[in-house]
C-alpha cells in the first residue's frame, strides 16, 4: 500500500520542501511514493536538530509530521525520490545498486544551507532488488543512536531527525516490527554515484554530476587548473580526516563498500558498526565479514582503496593519470597528520609536537593491543593520570611494562599545566560511547514498548565528554555477554 498522495493543505508552520536532486534530472533518480506503515507511533524526535534546521517544534510533534515521516502520507510539497548508484561490495564490483530502502523526500533551506531529508525503511523502490525496502526497529534504533553519538563526538556524520515505529511485521532472521529513521545530510551522494555513470559509459552525466558536486559542495575546485582532479583531492582529504577520527575513537564501520562512502566525508549508513570494547586492531565487527576485509586496523587502507575506485570513475573527466595519482596522494599525508594530532590530543600533549611523540603513541598502542585494555575507559582514566595514576595502572596485567611507558609519558608532560592538560584531554576522550551491549539493552526495552532506556542513553551520547554522574553505569565495563553479540549487514 503506497502512501496517501492526495494533495493536502500544509499546516501553517510546516516546512517548505524543495525538490531533491532537481538540478540533476531524472537520469539520477526515480520518483516513488513511500509505502504506508500501519498504526505509526513516535519513538524519538530530535528537537535540537529541528531547531538547527529551522523546523517548528510543534509541527515536528504533529500528526502530519508523524504520518509523513512514517511514510503514510506524502508531506505537502514533498517529491520523494530514490537515487540510483552502483559500487564495489567487499572489493567486488556489484553493478547497479541504488536506494533500495531509502527515499529523499525533499530538500530544506536551513540557516546552514540546503539539507536533504531522507526516510530509511519506507518501502520498496526500483532499486530494492530482492529486498522489502523496510527497516526493523532494532537496526533503526542503532542508526538513530549512533548518528547522534557520532555528532556528539564531533565526527562528521548524517544526522537523525526522528524515529517512528509500527506494529507492521518485517521478516529478517525472525519476524520483527518495522520502523523508519528520518535522517538528514547536506548530501547523500556517494562514491557509487560516480561509479554508476562512469562504468556505464555515460560520461556526459558523470560530468553533470561532478559539476553539481563542485558547484554545491566544493566551490574552491572551480578555480583549479583541473577541477575534477581538485575534487578528487578534496574528497580524499575529507575522507582521510574522517578515518583519522574513526581510528582515534575506536569506531568500526563494518561495511565500507564504495556505495557506503560519502562524497562529503560523512559517516554514512550505520549497519554492523561497533565501538571497540577491548582495544584489538584485528577486531571484526561485522559477522558477515568472514574474511576480515573491514577489520578495525584495515579501515584506513580500505578507504584509500575506495578512493582509488572513485579516482578510476573520474578518469574520463580528469584525463591525466598523473593528476589523478597526485590527487590521491593527499590521502596518506592528511590521514597521518590528522591521526597523529588526534592521538597527541588524547594524550594531552598540548604543546608543539616533539620527535619522541610518535614513538610514545606507537608504543602505547602496542601495549593496549597486547593486553586488550578497554579502549574508552583507558583513555578517560588517563585524563586524571597526573592526580590518580592507580586507576590507570590497574587496567593492566603486565603493570611493569605500562609503568615503564608511564614514566616516559610523565617526563614528556613535564612543564605542561596539569589543569589545562586535564581539561583538554577530557574534551578528546569521551566517557560514553555507544557500546553494543548498551544498544542491545535499549533495543530490548523498546521491543517491550519502553523507550525510557533509549532516551537515557541518547542523553549521554549527545554530550559524551561530560560525566553525567546519575548515568555512571552507562560508562562501565561491558558485561561478559557483550562479546557474544553478533551484528551483520541485515542488522
Search tags:
3 domains, alpha+beta, 491 residues, 16 helices, six-stranded antiparallel beta sheet, two-stranded antiparallel sheet
N- to C-terminal distance: 25 Å
Task: Note the run of SSEs as H and E.
Answer: EEHHHEEEEEEHEEHHHEEHHHHHHHHH
| Structural class by secondary-structure content | alpha+beta
- Nearest-integer average pLDDT: 95
- Radius of gyration over alpha carbons? 23 Å
Catalogue the unreliable spans: none
Number of strands: 12
Measured as a percent range, the helix fraction is: 40-55%
Estimate what percentage of residues fall within beta strands: 5-15%
Q: Based on CA inertia axes, which overall geometry fits?
A: globular
Number of helices: 16
Total domain modules: 3
Q: Report on the biggest sheet.
A: 6 strands, antiparallel
Description:
- The two termini are 25 Å apart.
- The mean pLDDT is 95.
- The longest helix is centred in the last third of the chain and has 26 residues, at 321-346.
- This protein has helices at 47-53, 57-60, 63-69, 137-152, 191-199, 203-217, 227-249, 299-318, 321-346, 357-371, 375-382, 390-393, 399-413, 418-426, 436-447, 452-462, and strands at 29-31, 41-45, 81-83, 86-89, 92-96, 102-110, 113-120, 135-136, 159-171, 175-185, 251-252, 274-275.
- Strands 2, 6, 7, 8, 9 and 10 form a six-stranded antiparallel beta sheet that branches. The chain has a two-stranded antiparallel sheet with strand order 1-3. Strands 4-5 form a two-stranded antiparallel sheet.
- The chain folds into three domains: 26-188, no CATH class; 192-345, no CATH class; 349-426, no CATH class.
- The chain has 491 residues and is an alpha+beta fold.
- Helix 7 (227-249) runs parallel beside helix 9 and helix 8 runs antiparallel to helix 9.
- Strand 4 and strand 5 (92-96) form a beta hairpin.
